[in-house]
Every structure is written in C-alpha cells, then in structure tokens.
Prior knowledge:
By secondary structure, the chain is α+β, with helices and mostly antiparallel strands. Helix content is 43%, strand content 15%.
Amino acid sequence: MCGITGIVGNTINSDVYQTAIQKMTNAIDHRGPNSQGLWNDEHCLFGHRRLSIIDLSEAGNQPFISQDGRYILIYNGELYNYKDLKFELQRAEHGSTNIPYIFKTNTDTEVILASYLRWGNNCMKRFNGMFAFAIWDTVQQKLLIARDRLGVKPLYYQYKNNILVFASEIRALIYSGIIDKKINQSSVAEYIQYATVHAPNTMLQDVNVLMPGNFLELHQNNLTFSQYWNISDYATSKHDLSYKETCEKVNELLTASVERRLIADVPFGAFLSGGIDSSAIVGLMSKVSSEKVQTFNVSFDESEFSEAKYAKQIAQKFNTQHHEIKLTPTDFLNQLPEALAAIDHPSGDGPNSYIVSKATKKEGISMALSGLGGDEVFAGYDIFKRFYELEKKVWLNIIPAKGLAGKLISAKNKSVQGDKTSEILALNSINGYQAYPINRKLFNQTDYHSLLKNKYNDSNFIFNVIKNSTTDKQHILSRVSLYEIETYMQNVLLRDADQMSMAVALEVRVPFLDYLLVQFVLGVKDEYKFPHTPKKLLIDSLGDLLPNEIINRPKMGFTLPWKDWLKGDLREFCEDNIIQFSKSSFVNREAILIIWNRFLNNDPKITWSRIWHLVVLNNWINTHHIEC
C-alpha cells in the first residue's frame, strides 16, 4: 500500500516539473513513511511513497524498473493472488514462445510488471486485488494507468495542454503548483444535495477520477479510456443452484477472500464493531489463520448505546487478542482538527474513520480487515426492502391525485422522510430508478434550489452514474446493490476508508469486495436474498459461525452527540464556516444563513449532518486555498 504521483507530456523537461513532482510526492508522504522514490526521463516523471506490507526489503522500493530497463512501474495497493500468478509466470506456456520470467524479488509489485510483459493490457483481468498503477514504456513513450474493479484504491488526474498529471490523492495535484485550483460549481451543487461528488467528477474543475474497472493510455498526445470489467454484466443469473448450494458457494468464496487478504509481512488485525459483517470477517480470520487474530473496537462510554459488549462476545468466542479503545466525546473533539486536515476530498463522514484508524495504528498495526461492503453486497440496508416493495407497487401510478396526497403527507409528517415520500409520490412514474436518488438526498427540492444561484437538475448527478445499472425482474435487489456500490459505497465509504486510514499509514482490506464474491452474489435471484431478516443469505451461508445474539442485535454504529456539539462546543467553528460559505459567489447568502438558523431552532428537516457537510466543505476550501 502506497501513494503514487506522475507527470507525463512532451514539454516537462524543466525545473518547474521536477519541482512539481517532488511537491506532489511530499504532499502524500503520510501514505508511505517507509521510503520515497523518484524517476524521470524527458517525457515522464514518477514519484512514489511506500508503506511496506509485503517483502519489507529495499527490493520492493519504487519506482520499479524492469530488468531490461524499458518499463517503469509505480503501484499503490495489494495483489492478493500474486503468488498464483508468479507461479504461472515462472512456467513456460505450452505451445507458446513466451519464456519463463525469472523473478528478482518476492514482491507483488514485480508480479504486476511481469504480468504486463506477458499479457499486456489483459493482465488486469487476471488480477484479484485493490490497485492503482502506472507503467511507462520508455521505448514507445507510452503510459498505461489502471484501477481495480470496485474502486478500492483511488486515482485522480488532470489532462490539459497535452500534459497528464495524476496521483493517489487530490491534494498532490493541488500542491503541485502546475494546475488551477478552481472549484467545480456543479460539483458543489452535487455535494450539497448528496454529500459527495460522484466519479468521474471531483470538487475541482478539470480534475477527474479514473473510473473503477477502467484503464487509460496516453501515447503521442492521444488519451484513450477502456473498460476491462463492468459490474452490471453480473447482475443476472449465471448459475442454477439450490439455496443450499448457493449458501455453500458464498461461504467458500468469502472464506477464500478472507484467506487471500491475510497475506502480509507486518502485524495485522481487524476492525470489530460486533455487527454481523465485522464479526463474520473476524470469525473467518480465526478459522483460516494460524496466528491469533488481533481485533480492535473503539467505544464511547458516554454514548446512549455501546457496541463494546457485542465486540467482546465475538472476541471471546474466537479467542482473539482484543483491544477495546475507549474514547470520550472530548477525546473525539480534540482529534477533530487533525481529522479535518486529513480529508483529501470533502466528506462529512470521514472523521469517524480517522479516529478508528489512528487508534488501530497506535497499537502497532499496519494492516486491518474491515467489514465494509457487506450491506451493499448482501442487501443489508433498509433501502433494499423499500426499493423492492416500491417496484411491486405499480398500482401507485394509477392513484388519482397522488401528488396532492404526497403534499398532505409532507405537511403532516414534518420530517426529512415525509419530504422524500411526497417527492416520490409526485413522480410521473413511480419506480425504483426514479425514486433511488430521492432516498439519497440531503435536502428537499425547495431548500436545495434556494441554496444555489445557478439551477441544476439535482437528480441527474446520480442518474448519470446508475443509468446503465439495469437488471431483470428476478434481480431487483441486485439492481439496488449496483446503485449502492456505484454511488454511496464508491464515492463515500471507500473514499473515506482510503483517505482516512492512509492518513495514518494504515492499510485497510475489504474481503466483502472480492470481485469473485461480488459477481456471484449479484447473480443470485431475489427469492434467495429477500430481506425478511437482514442479510439472510449471508447469515445462512455462515452456518453456526455467529451466535444468535449477534445475528439478532439491532444495527448500530457510533452514537455521538453531533447535534449538541454543533450547537455547543463546535458552534463558533460551524458558524464561522457557514457565514464564510454563504459569501461564495455561487450560493444564496440569505438561504444558507436561514438553513443554519433553522437548525439552531430545531427544525426537524434540517438535521446536523446537513449543516456539518457544508462546514466540512468550506473548511476544505480554506485549508487548500481553493479558488471559488
């Protein structure tokens, strides 16, 4: 796990670009405290920061140069099947002129380069891992950049004036000194409504994200994009198994996924909340690991609810070396400034991830497994059931004056959910596709449009992401999985997990997002997954691995007094940011201030998270001196 930076173009042989690549690499030094590497020729500059996880020797330092000196590789991530690929590459292929590759290191880095030499651009199809890598061909003067299938590892870039600048974090581009740091106003509008910016867009104008499952090539000033994996291809039945056989296959794939992710040459552990997903990962780790598993739970005694007792129960069942890290809300508040400083791309949810990652790293852990992705893959959120039921209620479309009924509901139910129900009933055609963006909104239409000077069709932001995610009638739940994976998971959860864990040099691995498991579960029909109970397919696939107390416990999470903080300890900080944000040229100052006052006066439609996301955005703009 590392951080990569690069500048490629025809006119970069100058001190300006040499300085820029050093600034970029320095800006992400937190991602790789073990070593720094730079490489350049007339048209390419590469930078690398290394967090050593596999093969801790200097042989794994990067940029990595091929044995003949032609190819240069920089790489961020982990290749979980690198040993299998290495074995294959060391053998001569029957009927082929390919000769066995002689490896000089024990790294997965060299396996990526050797795979490219053997299979070219098709090598990505053979990789099982999380990665973003770049390969420069010094002979053809050609660049290849690729990103993993599910988007676990990020890659930001700008291509302008025939110069491509790219990095693992957007801050590296910001501090390069060679790009314009201008806000993208349509992205601000999207963030205000959905608390994120959906790839390929970012908060910066002309800066994009390489899409998951894609690669780009730059040759002779020609930039091309290709897709080597499309998640939507797998949301249809490709197997005719009984329910028992399906559960057995899920167990097999998840167990193998966990086992693959235990390969490391450093101390590792697992985040353990005591919920179904994290408990399943810990249980399977204990089953396949020859070492005692280390588990980490961050708890807050002052919370109304505590998950610590559930985490302890799992730790005792699987005899883990358990670390319960107790924090008070004051501890959390004291660490909030550094958590905000660690945010690479605006996110209101990031601080929680930062606190957990920092506490885990402090215990000497450099790699941890997470239960992220379990809800998205196995239909764990309430939205799955709501969506499924909505798709079945076609009769809603023939209700006379359903729009008026929606307004009455909103007037009676003065809440965020009341507004969303009203907006759904006002749709010309009520279906899951049209309703999904409404479920993800922060503000109702009236409040949202009042905040912005320019008008944007707020639904288009998500529609552009999910428009190709269609399935048949047997896979309605898989369709929701596609929506969740391609919007909230990739653009919030995975982004936060990467930027906040890597801020403290901690690698996080996500077994639920093994592409083989995802492909299989997406192809399972609804009748096997319908959520009569949360994540029934996953639970049944685990057999007796988890106790009933964990399976039947209420879904929880951090319970922190954010509402009180924003009105108390954080009020001055929030108010300063809200006032400053209200002066931005693209928002309506009065409307922003009214939203703030409505929150202070306990308007149920303006919850703390709506205010906090605006505060975080303005703080990010100030921190990085973004031009607005």
